[in-house]
Amino acid sequence: MGDDVNVDLAMHHRASNRLPLPLLLIELPANSRVNISQDDSKMHLRLHSDQIFKVSDETILFQKMGLTRTDDQEVSRIFDPEMTSYLKS
């Protein structure tokens, strides 16, 4: 049928590769030319584009996923406690 999945490896990958928040989303037209650079400290990014772009945070992603219309029980079932407390703040 399909590919076999190593659940232990998948769970380890998920736990060790969490997205740090806040998360910034950059939306650009498909034909945009983009140059992204960072400083030596790797704390700051500079984005140059030949098109207008939109920057938003993870809130828009959560809204599009429908997570702003969930209750505490559902959020706790989906996310770990650290993420749950972040979502409530």
CATH homologous superfamily label: Transcription factor DP
The CATH topology: Butyryl-CoA Dehydrogenase, subunit A, domain 3
Pattern of helices and strands: HEEEEHHH
Distance between the termini: 43 Å
Q: How many distinct beta strands? A: 4
Strand content: 15-25%
Q: Return the structural class.
A: alpha+beta
Could you name the ranges where pLDDT drops below 50 across 5 or more consecutive residues? 1-7, 9-13
**Largest sheet, order of strands side by side?**
1-4
Structure description:
The protein is 36% helix and 20% strand. The protein is an alpha+beta fold and 89 residues long. It has one domain (21-88): Transcription factor DP (Butyryl-CoA Dehydrogenase, subunit A, domain 3), CATH 1.20.140.80. The strands form two sheets. Strands 1-4 form a two-stranded antiparallel sheet. It has a two-stranded antiparallel sheet with strand order 2-3. A hairpin with a 6-residue loop joins strand 2 and strand 3 (45-49). The longest helix has 10 residues, at 7-16. The model is unreliable at 1-7 and 9-13 (pLDDT under 50).
